[in-house]
Amino acid sequence: MVTATRPPANAFVAAMRKVYNPIGFGKGYNFILWIIFCGALFGFCLARFMYLEFDGVYCPLNPKDGANSAGPGECYSYKSHPVYLIGIKLHLFTIIPGAFLACFQFVPFIRLSYTIIHRVNGYLVILLSFLGTVGAFMIARIAFGGGIDIQAVTGLLGIMFLCSIIIALFNIKTLQLEQHRAWMLRAWFYAGSIITSRLIMFISASIVSNQGPYYAPMNCAKLLTFYTNTTALQASHPACSDLSAWSLARASMSGGAENAAAALSITFGAAIWLALAMHAIGVEFYVSNYSHNLNAREKH
Q: Which regions span the lipid bilayer (predicted)?
């Protein structure tokens, strides 16, 4: 438990200290930031644990039962090749529990009072993070269309995430504790950009739907999954007399499943790039402020 060095400014601060001091926070703003960002990651993981039931929830055999499943048409892409299927399963089965466990690494009380648990959990998180990133690399070619922008940002995000973890691991081995925490914060802020990208993607998809028309190229075999038979498909997409051909699908969240898939695919890449930039810049403000306060304390 952290003991405050200054008397509380008012009754509210005194009451809040009774909440955040026992779990190891000495500053109220650190506790608030932890609630916001770690809480968002924790909640996101809890909401995604159902995806570990891959065939029942994430890619259900009956698509009509998939209200909480993968994006429209994504399961066809994942199941189109064993590498992609292994990749998405590896990604989901490791990064979701890994991110969930990572939330506990940022609880000061656990870090200070249960060092062994913090250390063992940390190594487990690192292992799951590496495996989850490998899975993400394996599916980058087909995720939400798999455009060059998506493949590039997936590679960049994965490299930034893993390099930050490696640097943090080096720091802890050399007993540079503050640098270790700073790089772990960077790593998980980068990873957290996936959450922000989802919000940006859905907002962007709605804007694209209203300001269009925008179109996305889509493989005819994938388009067939949105229709009952090839006759219905060819009526809407004459180019799909050959299922190996490609056709354009209009991007619109207010249309059918194929239109929603098109809207999400043309906005996903931009959403991740923007989210990653926001998180990469934002975490530096926090880390620099944290380092400044730490240096000020050391001088005194």
A: 31-51, 90-110, 122-144, 150-175, 187-208, 260-287
Query: What span, in angstroms and rounded, lies between the C-alpha atoms of 62 and 55?
Result: 10
Its pTM surpasses 0.85: yes
The sign of the CA dihedral 143, 74, 84, 50 is positive
Q: Crossing angle, helix 115-139 and helix 82-105, to 10 degrees?
A: 150
Q: Are strands 246-250 and 215-219 parallel, antiparallel or unpaired?
A: antiparallel
In this structure, the dihedral spanned by the alpha carbons of residues 201, 205, 211 and 217, taken in order and rounded to 10 degrees, is: 110
pLDDT in tens, 148-169: 999 999 999 999 999 999 999 9
Hey, where are the domains in the chain? 1-143
- Type of residue at 81: H
Q: What dihedral do alpha carbons 134, 140, 143, 147 form, nearest 10°? A: 170
Distance CA 130, CA 147 (A): 23
Query: What's the rounded Cα separation, in Å, for the pair 228 and 230?
Result: 7
Give the tens place of pLDDT for each residue, 180-211.
Answer: 999 999 999 999 999 999 999 999 999 999 98
Helices (H), the chain: 11-20, 28-33, 39-48, 74-78, 82-105, 108-113, 115-139, 148-173, 177-211, 220-224, 230-236, 257-299
Measured CA to CA in angstroms, residue 161 lies from 25, 186, 228, 250, 283 at distances of 26, 8, 42, 34, 13
119-124 LR contacts (CB < 8 Å, sep 24+)? 124/98
181's tokens: 């925490």
Q: Alpha-carbon distance 65 to 58, whole Å?
A: 10
Residue 241 exposed, middle or buried by CB count within 10 Å (0-12, 13-18, 19+):
exposed
Residue matched to tokens 């006759």 = 231
Q: CB–CB of 239/218 below 8 Å?
A: no
